[in-house]
Specification:
- By secondary structure, the chain is an alpha/beta fold.
- The protein has a single domain, classed as P-loop containing nucleotide triphosphate hydrolases (Rossmann fold, 3-Layer(aba) Sandwich).
- The chain has eight helices and ten strands.
- A six-stranded mixed beta sheet has the order 6-7-8-3-9-10, sandwiched between helices. A four-stranded antiparallel beta sheet has the order 2-1-4-5, covered by helices on one side.
- A hairpin with a 2-residue loop joins β9 and β10.
- α3 packs across α4, α3 packs parallel to α6 and α6 runs parallel beside α7.
């Protein structure tokens, strides 16, 4: 279902961003039983932005990411992506959207343990119906790009945490997604491995023109973003202005 999102006046503490936002959420609520995870969250994200979603544990930041990505359906409110109402799509349409337009990196990678690394990277292509040989050929260059050369046939159990997360990153990027959603992508890594993952995520996403939405509680990770969104008690409370140039860690 397509259409043009309504453009309500910016709410206090809300996004208040431009009408051409690639991703837009308005008044999003989501509860789990009696627990209110989101209580009317608003946010706009422009194409090509790298946005860090920050907040304390339990603030609702991961729930917000999952609603933006179509993993969860809000109880109320609107979520738009490229002119489509994501929250009104059926399960099948949301699955297609996630497979074709979005890439995902989670804290623990969520690789398929029985598959070698190259098949894990090729998996989104195989699910799209690509021939096996073509999918593997398309996945192969990512191993050199991400410093994983020689590990193509290694299963996840034989990879270090940083290597496994880079395989997950390659899997997220191999389809050329419009948006990469990363939920605490460095949370299980030491600082050096985490910095490498963020370097590669940001550089690869910018090279592809992809938008990145990264949930984190680490200031060092948020320093890579063009802009920070702060979530507290289920609401977006604080936004920093877009930065004029890409940000990264000082070295």
């Amino acid at each position: 279902m397509t259409g043009t999102p309504t453009d309500p006046a910016p709410q206090p503490g809300g996004a208040g961003a431009s009408a051409d936002a690639l991703i837009r959420a308005r008044g999003v609520t989501r509860s789990f039983g009696a627990t209110e995870a989101l209580r009317g969250a608003d946010v706009d994200i422009a194409a090509g932005e790298i946005v860090a979603v920050m907040g304390p544990s339990g603030s609702g930041k991961s729930t917000l990411l999952h609603c933006l990505a179509g993993i969860l359906t809000p109880d109320a409110g609107e979520v738009w992506f490229a002119g489509d109402r994501v929250d009104r799509l059926g399960d099948r349409a949301r699955t297609e959207l996630r497979r074709r337009r979005f890439g995902f990196v989670f804290q623990f990678g969520q690789l398929v343990p029985e598959l070698p690394a190259i098949e894990n990277v090729a998996l989104p292509l195989l699910l799209e119906g690509r021939p096996r040989a073509a999918a593997l050929a398309e996945a192969a260059p990512w191993f050199d790009r991400l410093g994983l050369g020689g590990l193509e046939q290694r299963r996840p159990g034989g990879l270090s945490g940083g290597e496994a997360q880079r395989v997950a990153l390659a899997r997220a990027l191999v389809t050329g997604p419009a948006v990469v959603f990363a939920d605490e992508p460095t949370g299980s890594l030491d600082s050096l491995a985490g910095e490498l993952v963020m370097d590669l995520l940001v550089d690869s996403a910018r090279a592809q023109g992809a938008t990145v939405v990264v949930v984190t509680h680490e200031a060092r990770v948020a320093a890579y973003a063009d802009r920070e969104v702060v979530v507290r008690d289920g609401r977006v409370l604080t936004l920093t202005p877009a930065r004029p140039t890409p940000a990264g860690l000082a070295r």
